[in-house]
Amino acid sequence: MRYVILRDDDTNAFTPVECLERLYRPFLDRKLPVNLATIPCVRTDTIRTDGRPEEFLFGAHQTGQRSISLAENPRLVAYLRENKDLRVVQHGCHHTMNEFASDDPAELRQRIQRGRDVLEQLGFPRSNAFVAPYDQYSPGGIREIVSQFRIFSTGWFDLRRLPQKWWLPYVAKKLGRQPHWRVEGTLLLSHPGCLLSCHRPRETMLNSIKEAIGQRELTVLVTHWWEYFREGKPDDAFISVLHATAAWLAEQRDVKVIAFDDLLSNNGSLERN
Ligand SMILES: [Zn+2]
């Protein structure tokens, strides 16, 4: 059996319910879980690496506030709570560039707790998984994340950003060509790049996904809801690829789509290894 975790990043107080509904209804109808890496309290002035405002901030310029909690969008919160196969996973706290790249344990702890409090006060179960904004973390940052979560999902691991005491297990993972590994009881998951991305050719996207799934026991497929609605307009061709992916995943007898939490129970296989 092969396992797939679909991770969609950057749901926040400005995410229109209609966008998630359009993208994920075909998954929800087939009972395929979708993990939403959710920003608890998004900063309205967060900018991308090229200095432009983030594209997931739909309409944020109209508010005068510096950060907006998910609680300020009750319609979205109700939608997420109604659709149990949309699994809310903690994606930082404010989603600023170097939020988890600090080495100050007190600051890191405070950010994790602040984000966690927002999500828990809205009635979401405590997230066992964590996704760091922009895949940025310091040795101190990842140490704090690992001490507080059972799963950490990121793009890749780099020796220089890991605590020294993890170097040996990291090298063993590298030599064994393992995409995922475990330290101190926490699963550290990498992913094969954002295969579902508006920057990739539509024609070959589904094939790349099939190939990636065929190459490993567990594949984390990462996408971003706002890439399907750039400048507020739906990209129908790209949305069709996502929906074709849902149909293909549901048809495969040897592929199971799971949630991060399933890795902690008997439904996912990594825990048994
Ligand atoms: Zn993000």
Descriptive report:
With 273 residues, this protein is an alpha/beta fold. The chain contains seven helices and eleven strands. The strands form three sheets. Strands 1, 2, 5, 10 and 11 form a five-stranded parallel sheet that branches. A four-stranded mixed sheet has the order 6-7-9-8. A two-stranded antiparallel sheet has the order 3-4. Strand 6, helix 4 and strand 7 (151-153) form a beta-alpha-beta unit. The two termini are 14 Å apart.
Summarize this, please?
With 273 residues, this protein is α/β, with parallel strands linked by helices.
Topology:
Layout: E1 2-11, H1 17-29, E2 34-38, E3 41-43, E4 67-69, H2 74-82, E5 86-90, H3 105-121, E6 129-131, H4 139-148, E7 151-153, H5 167-175, E8 180-183, E9 186-189, H6 202-215, E10 218-224, H7 236-251, E11 255-258
Parallel strand pairs: 1-2, 1-10, 1-11, 2-5, 6-7, 7-9
Antiparallel strand pairs: 3-4, 8-9
Helix pairs in contact: 1-7, 3-4, 6-7
Bound molecules: zinc ion.
Zinc ion binds at residues 9-10, 91, 95, 133.
